[in-house]
């Protein structure tokens, strides 16, 4: 009897042992996700994400720009670095990628990113709180399919000196005025107040004339180069009208800019102090300026002595599209990743409503906006001008990252355009003569790239 009892206990022990082994065998090993990301960006979320997702282990893959940074600006070297980056991604095979716009466009068009269309339509993603403009932009650049999500966006609007305008009984700017209306308002300011400009174009080491002219042209979808036919197209009535309008603004004092060299900080980096970048507006010497959401903090820090307001950037009245918005920090999943569901968990966490709310203040202080519309914590009236215009497919973010025109030509054209504008200012040429010569000279330069 005693022996049977012992055998019974042995049987139970064996059974329990077998069950325990079976359970151990069923324990799933953590999935390791390779994340292509900058160290600073990765450090903001890696620990918190790992703590909330025990079944996922993150391993950072450093981008080539971090391991082998470039010094200075060289269009040809930038092109080489772009190709090196794509090659490194191909070799290292990260599961999740933090991408810049040109990388995102290239990889999406080559089918190397996984579609996120079905994932964002899930109820738990809550698409209604994510910026529709960002989704539009990311689909535009991803061949009408969504391959990535950005956690932040950049945009600009018109800040204005409300005290100055009211004092002189000049109407306040309105959202989505045309550039013609905006500069007409600026002209009224300069005509009413000696030494006060209507619009401050900002600070740079050379004139910002072409930056203003090209920006106005973008609002109407004007192109200064027909990339398909390899033809420069700046000598047209539409462009001439814009050049004349900006020229008149510079001559009358309605438009003013600050030209000076950058300072150098202790780290050897060039920069402008806020009083250099925005000084004429901060001191009340200009009525309007185009700037990002972060300018609000500068106004507060500088303790400006006037009341200010903000409205949407100027746009073409027939199109009503903004040109300054662009996505920041685009996260995507490699089409080759065997862990797409786990990779999505990371992206979903990065752009979750909870995380966006926690980071909203910091993002805005750096000039950006959270991608989640409801993350702005009561800032609706301030935020609205930056996001109310749908983004233009021909906006600034596209111009910065064009792959159908060589970067070196874009830079050369900009220098030529500014040089010809200075000739207009000193009366050497008429607008028609300047654009004719600019087109001929730019065409000769562009022919080198055919």
Q: What features would you describe in this structure?
A:
This is Extracellular solute-binding protein. Pfam families: SBP_bac_8 (PF13416). Keywords: Cell membrane, Lipoprotein, Membrane, Palmitate, Signal. InterPro entries: Bact_solute-bd_prot1 (IPR050490), SBP (IPR006059). It comes from Cohnella terricola. With 450 residues, the protein is of the alpha/beta class. The protein has 2 domains: 192 residues, Periplasmic binding protein-like II (D-Maltodextrin-Binding Protein, domain 2, 3-Layer(aba) Sandwich), CATH 3.40.190; 211 residues, Periplasmic binding protein-like II (D-Maltodextrin-Binding Protein, domain 2). 48% of the residues lie in helices and 16% in strands. The protein has 21 helices and 15 strands. The chain has a 6-stranded mixed β-sheet. The chain has a 5-stranded mixed β-sheet with strand order 9-6-12-5-13. Strands 7-8 form a two-stranded antiparallel sheet. α10 runs parallel beside α12. The N terminus is likely disordered.
Overall shape: it is globular
Q: How much helical structure, as a percent, in the residues?
A: 40-55%
Supply the number of structural domains: 2
- CATH architecture call of the largest domain: 3-Layer(aba) Sandwich
Helix/strand/pairing category? alpha/beta
User: In what range is the share of β-strand residues?
Assistant: 15-25%
* Mean pLDDT figure: 86
State the end-to-end CA separation.
Answer: 99 Å
Quaternary structure type:
single chain
**Rg on CA atoms, Å:** 27 Å
Give the biggest sheet. 6 strands, mixed
Provide the CATH superfamily of the largest domain. Periplasmic binding protein-like II
CATH class of the largest domain: Alpha Beta
Number of strands: 15
Organism: Cohnella terricola
Protein name: Extracellular solute-binding protein
Keywords: Cell membrane, Lipoprotein, Membrane, Palmitate, Signal
Pfam families: SBP_bac_8 (PF13416)
């Amino acid at each position: 009897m005693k022996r049977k009892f012992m055998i019974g206990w042995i049987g139970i022990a064996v059974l329990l042992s077998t069950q325990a082994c079976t359970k151990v065998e069923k324990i799933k090993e953590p999935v390791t996700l390779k994340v292509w990301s900058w160290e600073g960006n990765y450090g903001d979320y890696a620990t918190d994400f790992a703590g909330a997702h025990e079944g996922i282990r993150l391993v950072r893959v450093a981008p080539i720009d971090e391991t082998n940074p470039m010094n200075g600006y060289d269009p040809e070297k930038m092109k080489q670095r772009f190709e090196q980056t794509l090659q490194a991604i191909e070799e290292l095979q990260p599961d999740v990628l933090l991408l810049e716009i040109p990388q995102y466009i290239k990889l999406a068009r080559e089918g190397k990113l996984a579609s996120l269309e079905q994932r964002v339509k899930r109820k738990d993603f809550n698409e209604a709180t994510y910026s529709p403009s960002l989704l539009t932009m990311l689909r535009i650049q991803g061949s009408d399919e969504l391959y990535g999500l950005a956690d932040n966006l950049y945009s600009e609007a018109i800040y204005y000196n409300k005290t100055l305008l009211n004092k002189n009984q000049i109407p306040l700017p309105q959202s989505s005025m045309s550039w013609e209306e905006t500069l007409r308002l600026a002209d009224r300011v300069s005509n009413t107040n000696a030494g006060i400009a209507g619009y401050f174009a900002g600070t740079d080491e050379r004139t910002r004339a072409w930056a203003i002219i090209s920006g106005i042209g973008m609002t109407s979808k004007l192109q200064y180069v027909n990339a398909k036919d390899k033809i420069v197209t700046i000598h047209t009535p539409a462009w001439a009208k814009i050049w004349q309008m900006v020229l008149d603004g510079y001559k009358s004092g309605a438009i003013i800019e600050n030209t000076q060299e950058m300072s150098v900080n202790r780290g050897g980096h060039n920069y402008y102090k806020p009083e250099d970048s925005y000084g004429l507006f901060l001191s009340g010497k200009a009525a309007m300026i185009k700037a990002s959401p972060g300018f609000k903090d500068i106004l507060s820090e500088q303790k400006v002595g006037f009341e200010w307001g903000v409205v949407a950037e100027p746009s073409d009245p027939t199109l009503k599209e903004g040109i300054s918005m662009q996505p920041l920090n685009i996260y995507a999943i490699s089409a080759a990743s065997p862990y797409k569901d786990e990779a999505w968990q990371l992206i979903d966490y990065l752009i979750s409503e909870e995380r966006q709310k926690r980071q909203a203040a910091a993002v805005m202080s750096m000039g950006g906006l959270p991608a989640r519309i409801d993350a702005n914590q009561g800032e609706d009236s301030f935020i609205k001008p930056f996001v109310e215009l749908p983004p233009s497919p021909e906006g600034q973010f596209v111009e910065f990252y064009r792959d159908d025109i060589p970067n070196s030509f874009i830079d050369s054209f900009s220098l030529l355009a500014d040089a010809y504008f200075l000739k207009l200012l000193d009366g050497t040429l008429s607008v028609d003569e300047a654009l004719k010569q600019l087109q001929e000279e730019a065409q000769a330069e562009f022919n080198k790239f055919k």
